[in-house]
């Protein structure tokens, strides 16, 4: 299982997250985000974190050319896409980069559910308001959570283990509950989150899931 620390805005936070054991860092390029970074900052932070840490560019609403130019300048290794998007657009991005396609629970039963099992695209189930710190209803998702999907939405050190035990995601992703303030990570919270997620993943095969 992979652990992603999203909303990284500085070299300091990138290096600390990598040292804590994060598998991936998220750099947000969505224009209206409080955690918006430039490609240069993302590139420098990602390179300082080390080559073993994946670097994910997070986009919402940008055109294909802008996404690809930004991703290239930032030297990301994957792209995360939010918002309503044409299927062709997602496939075009996936021709260049591995894609995390962020969906809401309500999307799973609709046309967006097609991304389950499509090569190059991994579903990331997120809250309707990404970055808002509100957890999803995990119990309601147990029967519909896509195999191999990632989980986001209100995850933090205090609840990530329970989420992993219940839904068995392939990866977990957190932002707001790992911050001292918007755009600045709390190193202790990051470390506790990574440790709790890794420990839960290692032990989940031997534990009883809540009924």
Automatic annotation (TrEMBL):
The keyword Isomerase applies. Residues 3-196 form the N-(5'phosphoribosyl) anthranilate isomerase (PRAI) domain. Pathway: Amino-acid biosynthesis; L-tryptophan biosynthesis; L-tryptophan from chorismate: step 3/5. It holds the Pfam family PRAI. It catalyses: N-(5-phospho-beta-D-ribosyl)anthranilate = 1-(2-carboxyphenylamino)-1-deoxy-D-ribulose 5-phosphate. It comes from the Bacteria. It is an enzyme of class 5 (isomerase). GO terms for molecular function: isomerase activity. Its EC number is 5.3.1.24. Keywords: Amino-acid biosynthesis, Aromatic amino acid biosynthesis, Isomerase, Tryptophan biosynthesis. Belongs to the TrpF family. PANTHER family: N-(5'-PHOSPHORIBOSYL)ANTHRANILATE ISOMERASE. This is N-(5'-phosphoribosyl)anthranilate isomerase. It comes from Deinococcus taklimakanensis. The gene is trpF.
